[in-house]
Amino acid sequence: MPNKFLKASFLSAFYKSPLYRAVLDSGALRVLHTSPTSRPLRASHILYISHTLRPSRTFAALLLGAFAWCALATHSSALEPRKGFYGEGTIDMSYLFLQNAATSSSALPSGMGGEAGYVFGNVFKLGLLFDIHSSPMSNKTKGFVIANPSVTNPNMRYAGAKNYTEIDFGLKLGLNLASKSHSKSIYINSGIQTGTMQMGAIGDVSAVTSSITIPIEVEGIIYRSGGFYDAGGAGLMSGYAGANGAGAGGSSSFGADKFGFYYLAGVDLMMMNYTFLTPESNQAKSDFTATYALKAGLGFSYKLSRRARFFTRLIAKYTALPQSSTATITTNADSPSFNDSFLPSMSSSVYFPKGSALSVLLKIGVGF
Questions:
Q1: How far apart are CA 224 and CA 245, in angstroms?
Q2: What's residue 211's pLDDT?
């Protein structure tokens, strides 16, 4: 159906062109002088033109014939499921709010992210991804960890800084439920990810979370018409529908079809533990605890060229931070280099109270 539509459109324009009227006067196109929809253009017609026109007209006709077949071939291959490598890089900015029974604090983490992988026949994709974000935090007077007894020196003014750092790496697997569609993709994603999240407080006990995550996501992109389709998920757009960008299902303009609407919804199944430490103590780890996160995102992609695209995404995420098991840390013995913000030779039972993290992340990037 797409090829028939484009052939009919091309021939209709050809019959109205000055070139057609000029060569028609020569009698060379009598074989084509019929309805464009009932008599499709064939290679033999182009050869017939080349043998009956004068050299200048033959050259023009061959150029026109080559353009016609290139247009048809481009249209056909563009609407084939794309295979091959894909990738993207992003600059990230976000707002984060963390709270538990010990304290609450906010931050504006920024950083970068990326994803690269391979699409198999627009049905299955395999990718690697990463995100790195960091920021100072507000409310620097108290850490997120409860210590009993406290290991901080009550006679010393708290002079540290509270920081937030998050690093995630993962393997992504996706199955496109709409692999035959030219106007949308519906990827069911899963895989495995590892991450660390440090809620540090110099001058108090810091907590570093380590997590293993299995995401379950629905992700894809929707187009106004069939002019483009998402070959790699996550906003990866590929292909042209013809000279004016009209898809097989409509005749909207090329400019309108450069835009794609991105969506994401999912849940993360997580196993998380905490590492407790201070600059003047040993490290102590808690047991792994099951938890979860919920996320949803919207965005758009704008096609810059046949392969390159610009995109933005806004992703909201809620993470349930579980209460940790209790661990014991012991501060170092007093010495000339000992940090006076802490009490020397103190043993303390520490734990992270149940809490939550809410973030809104803006990703701005380019991909291919």
A1: 11
A2: 96
**How high is the pLDDT of residue 269?**
98
Structure tokens at 128: 């690697």
- Bond into 344 cis (ω within 30): no
**Residue 113: other Cβ atoms inside 10 A:** 18
Which H or E run includes 317?
A: strand 309-321
DSSP for 160-208, written as a single string: --EEEEEEEEEEEEEEETTTT-SSB--EEEEEEEEEEEEEEETTS-EEE
pLDDT computed for residue 314 by the predictor:
98
Q: Please, what sign has the CA dihedral across residues 106, 112, 118, 119?
A: positive
CA-to-CA dists, residue 56 to 19, 53, 59, 271, 272, angstroms: 12, 8, 5, 74, 75
Q: Please give the single-letter amino acid code of residue 347.
A: S
Distance CA 318, CA 295 (A): 6
| Per-residue pLDDT at 82 | 56
C-alpha torsion sign, points 109, 196, 292, 190: positive
Phi, psi of 146 (to 5 degrees): -95, 125
Identify how many contiguous H helices and E strands the chain contains and give both numbers.
4, 17
**Average confidence (pLDDT) per 10 residues, the chain, 368 residues:** 50 51 46 42 43 46 44 33 80 95 91 94 92 89 86 73 89 91 86 91 84 96 60 39 35 59 96 92 92 97 83 97 94 88 91 96 94
| E-state strands within 224-258 | 229-230, 237-238
CB of 104 within 8 A of CB of 315? no
Per-residue pLDDT, 159: 52
Q: 67-77 burial by CB neighbour count: b if 16+ within 10 A, else e?
A: ebeebbebbee
Tokens read off for 281 = 């103590």
